Amino acid sequence: MKVLVINCGSSSLKYQLFNMENQSVLAKGIVERIGLEGGMLKHQPANKDKVEISENIPNHKVAVKMMLDALLDKKHGVLENISEISAVGHRVAHGGEKFARPVLINDAILEGLKECIPLAPLHNPANVLGIEAVRQILPETPMAAIFDTAFHQTIPEHAYIYGIPYELYKKYSIRRYGFHGTSHRYVSMQVARFLGKPIEDLKIVTLHLGNGSSISAVKNGKSIENSMGFTPLEGIVMGTRCGSIDPSIVFFLMEKEGISLDKINDYLNKKCGVLGISGVSSDFRDLEDAAAAGNTRAKLALDVFAYQAKKYIGSYAAAMNGLDAIVFTGGIGENSISIRRMICDEMDYFGIKIDDAKNNVRGKEADISADGSKTRVLVIPTNEELMIALDTVSLI
Length: 396
Fold this sequence. Notes:
Layout: E1 2-8, E2 12-19, E3 24-32, E4 40-45, E5 51-54, H1 60-72, E6 85-92, E7 103-104, H2 107-115, H3 124-137, E8 143-147, H4 157-160, H5 166-172, H6 181-195, E9 203-208, E10 214-219, E11 222-226, H7 248-257, H8 261-270, H9 273-278, H10 284-292, H11 296-320, E12 325-329, H12 330-335, H13 337-344, E13 366-367, E14 376-379, H14 384-395
Parallel strand pairs: 1-6, 6-8, 9-12, 12-14
Antiparallel strand pairs: 1-2, 2-3, 3-4, 4-5, 7-8, 9-10, 10-11, 13-14
């Protein structure tokens, strides 16, 4: 069985084609600058040279056709016939309270996805566009929607309710949702496999650290907390997102800096975070280099990031009344030796100790715990696309 996984953005379409018999990737790629000048497809078939094709790509339907043509191409394709695609799994950012698990897409489900657009106006419209484009070209192929928020639907009410009138929660669905659920679910399952214990017996903090970062408490296989909230803006400070701040700061900035209502959301999402603190970059690799060269603001940005991660680990250990393991994943979590060390430093009270030699690892699965560490500290690369493919297979 071959499953195509698609992640549509407003001007991009990422894809991976899996052979589910052995869970191998047959091809992957991205269609960039949809609806803009300079459109391009970057296609990487397994065990073949990478292909780049420049072309005008006016809309998502053209992008989907371009992707399928690449998969079928005689030279760099991996399919002989389009019917070899048994199903398509779509990543969807926000399922609201409507969707607590993956679903097969039909007309009613598609309407439900559109109803969730106000909750994620930057992401869900593009996800819907991608689904509609694929349905037009592959009308008979089963398709599934896999939600970033679904894994966190087990967060209890006392954890997801904000301190606003309850009637507004009911009216507008204003609550903590949590994000990166597919990643947190995948790595928590891998922790159980790695430790050889039932996930139902484990208390795990999963740290998905990248340009966008979120931290989850996974108790007995269920998410009970996530640092992101109503939107991905809440939580730990990120590349360009401010993370959790006093809401009064928003109104203060609007007044003092003359930032308009229609621009403040963009400002908090794209101009803040470690970029704003450091004045150097939103890329943590640049920050580490700058800090090593003596840039004090770059070092401050890294210190803030690590400190906030420590606070979430501690609070989630309290929420779960215990801690068996923490796991690092995402671009930073999997690759930054120094940031993992900063986060784990002086966490002895929680039984967290890492071995510097074991921590000298990037991009692969590892146990970096020091001897005698009560809490296991793991590095596990995430694989959200495979998780989407597996969920799609289970549905069909």
